[in-house]
Amino acid sequence: MWLYICIEDLVSKVFTLYLYLWFSCFSIIMSRNMMEPLAVGRVIGDVVDVFNPSVRMNVIYSTKQVANGHELMPSTLVPKPRVEIGGHDLRDAYTLIMTDPDAPSPSDPYLREHLHWMVVDIPGTTDASFGREIVEYENPRPVIGIHRYVFILLKQHRGRQTVSPPASREQFNTRIFSQENGLGLPVAAVYFNAQRETAARRR
């Protein structure tokens, strides 16, 4: 009887350890899959540092969901997108930033970053419309080359009403802004590409 109890306890512990290792490996693989396109697209490096994606974020223009590295036409980007935020607690607050690190041109981005949109105090498990827009949405209008447009989600560790508006859209710096407002590393990010449309491309 004693031996049976010991074996049962050992099996239970081994199974628990197996589940822990499986979920840990799964999380690492998922994190790498999400981070790889951001690294390939140089979003990591040009805009943000390496981070651990921990909150779901969906960015949707009309019916088209933004996916890393995909190209969207500027004519479809005039209305602001719907941005759905995951998380686990309505009491958590998040800041959403949309920025262009390729302004005015990818070969000479001396205005990097150009800030297109900022919404703060977004409750977890909701969407950006529940937050407070402190920088009005400016739709992408690239003139020279292919531009990256990056959506970055940051958690407000100091709570609501703690994020101040930036001084300017031009030469905005996501890293510095995050540090100054106690936001830390991103919890989610996604980007798309866009370039100037010709008449032929609009057909």
Automatic annotation (TrEMBL):
It holds the Pfam family PBP. The keyword Ligase does not apply. Keywords: Membrane, Transmembrane, Transmembrane helix. PROSITE patterns: PBP (PS01220). CDD domains: PEBP_euk. One of its GO terms (biological process) is flower development. The chain crosses the membrane at residues 12-30. Belongs to the phosphatidylethanolamine-binding protein family. PANTHER family: PHOSPHATIDYLETHANOLAMINE-BINDING PROTEIN (PTHR11362), PROTEIN BROTHER OF FT AND TFL 1 (PTHR11362:SF108). This is CEN-like protein 1.
